[in-house]
Write a structure and sequence with these properties.
Distance between the termini: 173 Å
Number of helices: 66
Structural class: mainly alpha
Number of strands: 0
Largest sheet: none
């Protein structure tokens, strides 16, 4: 092989002879079209440019006059015969170029001077060929005029022409394939020695001596330059390497064994141009690395250099130069170096600066796949420089160059540690990585087997129309959340990586290719002003019903997925970190969420650790869930079969909840043995009902009906904590009819099931734990009412209980216990009032007032009497619990009892004030109400709290054996008052005397309206026994007189009778 050491120079000249037919079509450079040199002068310049292979002048002289015969073969020469026979395949011996290629690849033997002379003569014969002179004269005239070393300029000129052809869309003058191969082969053969590329050598000679004085001369080590000419020469060489990796000697040598090992060598069935491209080599070897195969360190080092080279200079990728020319000129001019132009194009592709052509986007995606910056962020110089400070602070625990660096940066996106330049560069790169799952090396490594098994994916650097790269991830995440019953699930490691990618995609809607593709129109229509972080997806969810079907499907699927694993919403989880750590850490640590974390956040939405961002995010997701019951994962899984069976055509969650809860209520009222709604669904239905009670927006029907009233009466009240609902309740009398009716129905439901009364349960949470731990949920309010006056009762809870008591007393329908106890008495005694009732309006306590009067008449059933007694006792302590008294005596209370009404604690002082000022009351309706109170107090001393408090000791001493009710204890006290031998407490005696006077006045003002009322007055009178005795005495006397005196009437004769 030693005899062939100078083959490179010979091939430089051989190229020119092979290009004779092609370069005829190439035009001279502008400005030099009319310049021609004599052939002899050109020949002399070429001869001068050739290096002298020693001091053998005779050989050189002889070569000028003699030429080899036409059939001369290099393999037949004695100097090269042994090397050719030993090293080169036999079929190549007849082709001089094939022999030269073979010997170029084999460097084991040093050259001899005889072989140098042989090759030198062969080269010289080629250079003096008249055909070569004529071609050089036409194509490279301007080059030769500028540079004495015109031979090197000719090669450089042809190389630049080859590069220009790849970068131009209009190929008017194409170089023939044979000539292209020759040019590239010349570049390959000159790659191992810097001197062999004469144009590069002379352009970069000074720079090489300045920067690379101690570096062994080799082309791959000469990539340093500062001068413009040298930079251009190096750029041309880099572009040639991009078209044929063998032009880089160091890369071809370092990766030769790996290329052969992983079958990356040229395939006869493929076009040579594809296999020789640098991108093909990188893709093939990167595929091996991603599959976990071993690639030598030297080869990986060379690959890293060239991947970095591709990311730094977009012009090295002819497809980008060709297809992205317009975008570069419009948006990215002047940003050529350090990868800035490439990132600018990425930004345009994201839509941040305009639009981009599909061919340009494809070219960018191909480049990113070839360079594979996801495997090592340092390849992307622009990203590396922009994110250096963030990496040093937020990701310093990760080894430099590790693929997890990009994931770490994504985790800190939109945080305080992130800087703006890094944020932009990171999102620009992630935009392309998100569109090909293979560009995330960790995801590919953990999920390649699952993707092959479940998604039938092709190889790493292969493609498939049935399963393009962007569709693979969609396939993976559809399998990631399958249950064991559904089968075909992902492995645990792959699922973790899929969740990681979903978390990242939730940060920016543009990182979800399918979402952006299908929802481009809707994003522009509904969400053009939503530019803040995470707002675009929220906007799409808010307008779910208005979206086109394709967009609605993908947004619905993503929302359904988030309901199962809310941690996908990285921004929400980040905002809720404090609440999660304090209240939900046990469910957050679970690898399988199953909707538990979101449920925990909803339950703790009003904890002190909850900030505004977290509360808004959780509420937003609750509102989105109302659009479709499938968006509530736990509800969907618990009630899916029940919905299909009982509510098949209902989709909205609120309607489904109403449908199922109505079914449950009907089955309960009818005492159905086997409930139609399953137990697990009933339990989850309860959770959903409780959550919906917290915010009026979670009950769309109620919210829509009361929207105008909310704006009118509750505009300053914040949503959440059921505050809007409470505001509407307080302004119930002023509400519109539609809203009033809805609020009344809501109150009716809450009174039947107090656990749905969010405000009551929130304010009285601690008191419920203290007093009502053993009470049933439906008896919670009843329990709180019984303990209302306890010294341990919280004032706020007591105030809330009073509000609910006032509400209950406005209409018997809002008191389920009373309604059940008096179901026979109400239609019997109050039918006239029921005839006037409507669903939209309360009865303002009329039915309860009717029952009170019947209680005083002692005509109610036992159960109803007990409930009315409780109501009388409660309203006697607080006038606000008597709606009729409030309605008719509002002005009198303000005029006569303002001080008592203003008291914070009501203990019956307002009622006592009205009784004491009975003679001063002007309004007849109010006077009637006060008289009714006096009448009711005669029936039971407990109804008169002031009298009961004053006579408590006397009741204990004198009436302990008498059962309360029906006026028995009051009669006992009146008898004690009349008995001079009984000594009552002074206060009790005074209060009793006052009551006697009031009753006497009441009897005068309001006489009995009929015999029944007269009988009731007698029976409830303190002098009942005396009155009854006198009535009995009168009847007895009348009977005796009639018995003794006989008939007073005249006897009638029989004759008169018989007429």
């Amino acid at each position: 092989m030693a005899a062939c050491g100078r083959v490179q120079l010979l091939l430089l000249l051989l190229l020119l002879s092979l290009c004779l037919l092609t370069v005829q079509a190439l035009k001279p450079l502008p400005g030099f079209g009319n310049v021609h040199l004599p052939a002899a002068a050109m020949h002399q310049q070429f001869r001068a440019a050739l290096p002298n292979p020693g001091n053998n002048a005779a050989a050189a002289a002889a070569s000028s006059g003699s030429r080899r015969p036409t059939g001369w073969k290099l393999a037949e020469e004695q100097a090269c015969r042994d090397d050719v026979t030993r090293l080169c395949p036999k079929h190549s011996w007849t082709n001089n170029l094939s022999v030269l290629e073979c010997l170029q690849d084999k460097k084991e033997v040093s050259s001899t001077s005889n072989d140098d002379d042989l090759l030198w003569n062969y080269k010289l014969n080629l250079t003096t060929d008249p055909k070569f002179e004529s071609v050089a004269l036409e194509v490279c005239t301007s080059t030769m005029l500028e540079d004495l070393h015109s031979q090197g300029e000719v090669i450089a000129c042809l190389e630049r022409a080859l590069v220009r052809e790849a970068e131009q869309k209009d190929k008017a003058h194409q170089i023939k394939d044979e000539c292209k191969k020759a040019i590239m082969r010349v570049a390959e053969l000159s790659a191992d020695d810097f001197h062999l590329d004469r144009y590069l050598y002379f352009s970069c000679r000074d720079d090489r001596e300045r920067f690379c004085e101690h570096v062994r001369v080799s082309f791959s080590n000469s990539f340093l330059s500062s001068m413009h000419t040298c930079r251009n020469a190096l750029t041309t060489r880099q572009k040639l390497i991009a078209q044929d990796y063998k032009v880089s000697y160091s890369l071809a040598k370092a990766c030769k064994a790996d290329l052969r090992k992983y079958h990356c060598n040229p395939d006869t069935s493929m076009p040579r141009a594809r296999e020789a491209r640098l991108s093909f080599l990188l893709l093939c070897l990167e595929s091996a690395v991603h599959r976990g195969r071993t690639v030598t360190g030297d080869c990986q080092g060379e690959m890293l250099d060239y991947r970095r080279m591709l990311m730094e200079d977009f012009s090295l990728s002819p497809e980008i130069v060709l297809h992205c020319r317009g975008e570069i000129e419009a948006h990215c001019s002047g940003l050529h170096r350090k990868g800035r132009t490439l990132h600018c194009l990425m930004r345009v592709t994201r839509g941040d600066k305009g639009t981009v052509d599909n061919l340009c986007q494809t070219a960018l995606q191909t480049l990113i796949q070839s360079a594979d910056p996801g495997a090592d962020y340092r390849i992307d110089r622009a990203l590396n420089e922009a994110c250096e400070s963030v990496i040093q602070t937020a990701c310093k625990h990760i080894r430099s160059g590790d693929p997890m660096i990009l994931s770490c940066l994504m985790e800190h996106l939109y945080t305080e540690k992130m800087v703006q330049d890094c944020e932009h560069s990171l999102l620009e790169l992630q935009y392309f990585i998100s569109r090909d799952w293979k560009l995330d090396p960790i995801l590919y490594r953990k999920c390649q087997n699952d993707a092959s098994r479940l998604c039938y994916t092709p190889g790493w650097n292969e493609s498939s129309e049935l399963m393009p790269p962007g569709a693979v991830f969609s396939c993976l995440y559809r399998h990631a959340y399958r249950t064991e019953e559904q089968g075909r699930r992902l492995t645990r490691d792959c699922k973790v990586e899929v969740q990681r990618i979903l978390h990242q995609r939730a940060l920016d809607v543009k990182l979800d290719p399918e979402l952006q593709k299908r929802c481009m129109t809707d994003l522009g229509k509904w969400c053009s002003e939503k530019t803040d972080t995470g707002q675009e997806l929220e906007c799409l969810q808010d307008h779910l019903e208005e979206l086109v079907s394709n967009c609605r499907d993908v947004v619905g699927n993503l929302t359904e997925l988030e309901s199962e694993d809310i941690q996908i919403e990285a921004l929400l989880i980040r905002a809720c970190e404090a609440v999660i750590q304090s209240h939900c850490h046990d469910v957050a640590d679970n690898q399988i969420d199953m909707g538990n974390l979101l449920e925990c956040l909803v339950q703790n939405k009003h904890q002190r650790e909850m900030n505004d961002k977290c509360a808004v995010g959780v509420t937003h997701f609750q509102l989105v869930q109302m659009k479709d019951f499938r968006f509530s994962y736990k509800f969907k899984m618990a009630c899916k079969e029940d919905v299909l069976k009982l509510c098949p055509n209902i989709k909205k969650k609120a309607d489904v909840v109403i449908c199922l809860s109505t079914t449950v209520r009907n089955d309960t009222l009818q005492d159905v043995k086997d409930q139609r709604v399953s137990l697990k669904c009933r339990k989850q239905l309860r959770v959903e009902e409780l959550e919906m009670s917290e915010d009026i927006r979670l009950e769309p029907e109620l919210h829509d009906a009361c929207k105008k009233d909310i704006n009118k009466f509750c505009s300053s009240v914040a949503y959440g904590n059921a505050q809007i609902i409470e505001c509407l309740k307080e302004n119930k009398k002023q509400l519109s009819q539609v809203c009033h009716q809805k609020i009344f129905k809501l109150q009716e439901t809450e009174m039947m099931d107090p656990e749905l009364d969010y405000q009551l349960m929130r304010v009285c949470k601690q008191m419920i734990k203290r007093f009502c731990t053993e009470s049933d949920a439906k008896n919670m309010l009843q329990c709180l009412k019984l303990n209302k006056n306890s010294e341990l009762m919280d004032p706020k809870c007591k105030q809330m209980i009073t509000k609910r008591q006032i509400t209950q007393n406005t209409d018997y329908r809002l008191n389920p216990v009373l309604r059940k106890a008096c179901k026979a008495d109400i239609p019997k005694f109050c039918q006239s009032i029921l005839g006037k009732a409507s669903d939209a309006n309360e009865l303002e306590g009329q039915v309860i007032s009717c029952l009170k009067l019947k209680y005083a008449d002692q005509r109610l059933s036992g159960d109803c009497e007990d409930q009315i007694r409780v109501i009388l006792q409660e309203s006697a302590l607080d006038y606000r619990l008597d709606p009729q008294l409030q309605v008719h005596c509002r002005n009198e209370i303000t005029r006569l009892c303002a001080e008592e009404a203003a008291a914070q604690e009501q203990t019956g002082q307002v009622e006592e004030c009205l009784k004491n000022n009975l003679l001063k009351i002007k309004q007849d309706e109010c006077k009637t109400e006060v008289l009714n109170m006096l009448k009711e107090s005669k029936a039971d001393i407990f109804v008169d709290p002031v009298l009961h408090t004053a006579c408590a000791l006397d009741l204990k001493h004198h009436c302990a054996a008498i059962n309360p009710g029906r006026g028995r204890q009051m009669s006992c006290l009146m008898e004690a008052l009349q008995d001079k031998q009984v000594r009552l407490q002074p206060e009790c005696k005074r209060r009793l005397q006052d009551r006697v006077d009031m009753w006497s006045y009441a009897a005068k003002v309001a006489p009995a309206e009929g015999f029944s009322d007269l009988a009731v007055q007698v029976m409830t009178s303190p002098s009942k026994n005396y009155i009854l005795f006198m009535i009995a005495l009168a009847v007895s006397l009348l009977f005796l007189v009639g018995l003794l005196c006989g008939r007073i009437t005249k006897r009638v004769t029989r004759e008169l009778k018989d007429r």
